[in-house]
Amino acid sequence: MREISHTVLLVDDEARLADVLTVAIERLGYRVLSADSGEAALRLLESEPVDLLLTDLRMPGLSGRDLLRESKKRRPGLPVVVMTAYSSVKDAVEVIKEGAFDYIGKPFEIDDLETVLKNALLLSNALADNERLRKELVGRYRFDNLVGASPAFRKVIESITEVCESRANVLISGESGTGKEMVARAIHYNSPRRDHPFVAINCAAIPETLLESELFGHVKGAFTGAVVNRPGRFEQADRGTLFLDEIGDMPTSIQAKILRVLQERAFEPVGSVRTRAVDVRIVAASNKDLRQEVQLGNFREDLFYRLNVFPITLPPLRERVEDIPSLAHFFLEGFNSDMGKRIEGFSPAALAAMSGYGWPGNIRELQNCIERAVIVCKSEQIGEGDLPRYLSAPRPVANGTPAFPIDLDGELARIEQELIIAAVNRAEGIQVNAAALLGINERSLWHRIKKFGIQITKRAGGEPPLR
To answer: What is the pLDDT along the chain (467 residues), one digit of tens a residue?
Structure first.
């Protein structure tokens, strides 16, 4: 006898056949509940845990087809297998259309029944896992899980609340690490599209030669290596939301194709002449100033206005310092759970050190900092000594002599970042001139700006071009 793993509800008005099937199914390792009518089966469904319904099609009173319909109303995720001696393609097609997982004609071999039951339960388990994960995702991105009470972040929450119920395209702007994807997911999981896919793609991480295929898919033989048809992200996100992260790095050739999809709600996979309709909401994000990119000729103006229907700007963490303690506790709770720890909070000195630091990497850097602190902490409270030393690294005293000990790498990074900001400010945002002031080439400057997450904005009214 195999170990019992699932419960099968067997419904058949022929008592002898039901007894034989009960014994056979139990030998396969399943618990069997038996009912001699559709009405009795419904009562069992109300009172017993059932993983699969196996029912005869032709029965007096409530037929197998009627039972299928009723069970779908009461237990939508319950897999149903229908069996009948009146085997026909027409019957098979009809019960499958009405929601049955499969159809098996009498007489049948027990091996065939075992395969059908096994496949039905595998699908049921997969659907249950998907539903559990979907509920977890929806819960994770509820508004009360968006941490922060500062005025700057409250404006973000208000914006999400205003736009999530609509189908308008959204453009999220903000420095690297400010939580742009988190906001995109919050919009999706609080929208009418929440039961459909959220698909994300980082436009900066995929080479131009592959990006078109990633977005629109391809047909077999479209290019070397295209051995099968492959759906793209637009098709995968149909009826849901497509998150185009770092869209400011998207090549202009692909920008034109994105514009066409937004205008016509249709596209062609690479190598295909067949147009496919798609219903996708676009949420795009960039750490660049796309208006400036339009002026520089790096981004299409018509696409910008298509995306910028509802703009949301995320403030850097240094502009919402009052949110640092609540964010730190939020991350602490998560890492406590992941690592099986019971750290209760932070010392006043640790909170002061985190609140006094500039966080160039924003929320992502804070999250990494808390993870490290949870790993090294040996007490019930994270102290200043559990944090990276650069958070509380001493600044030079008046005569230029620093107080030791010092985190050399952290201090050098701080000085390098401050010099870059000063040089670009002096050069009024012109990077080639800023590079000359620093004695490095423009490409080296660009890499350092990206490394530190420095955002360059166009000078206007005397405001500095960096923030």
So the answer is: 455 568 999 999 888 888 999 999 988 889 999 999 989 999 998 888 889 999 988 888 888 888 998 998 888 888 999 887 765 656 767 788 888 888 888 778 888 888 988 888 887 777 776 666 655 555 555 655 678 889 999 999 999 999 999 999 999 999 989 999 999 999 998 999 988 999 999 998 888 888 989 999 888 887 877 778 888 999 999 999 999 999 999 998 899 999 999 999 999 888 888 889 999 999 999 999 999 999 999 999 999 999 999 999 999 999 999 999 999 999 999 999 999 999 999 999 999 999 988 898 899 999 999 999 999 999 999 999 999 888 876 555 545 555 555 566 666 777 788 788 878 887 878 888 888 888 888 888 888 888 877 776 554 444 444 44
Tokens for 311, please give them.
Answer: 């703009």
Q: Contact, 248 vs 286, CB < 8 A?
A: yes
What predicted TM-score, i.e. pTM, was given to this entire model? 0.61
Six token digits for residue 102: 């499969």
Phi, psi of 127 (to 5 degrees): -65, -40
d(CA 448, CA 436): 14
Please say whether the dihedral angle defined by the alpha carbons of residues 113, 116, 122 and 125, taken in this order, is positive or negative: negative
Q: How many residues does the chain have?
A: 467
Q: Angle formed by the axes of helices 348-355 and 324-339, to 10°?
A: 120
**Which of the 8 DSSP states describes residue 3?**
P
The H-assigned helical ranges of 340-376 are 348-355, 362-376
Name the burial class of residue 158, with classes exposed (0-12), middle (13-18) and buried (19+) by CB atoms within 10 angstroms of its CB: exposed
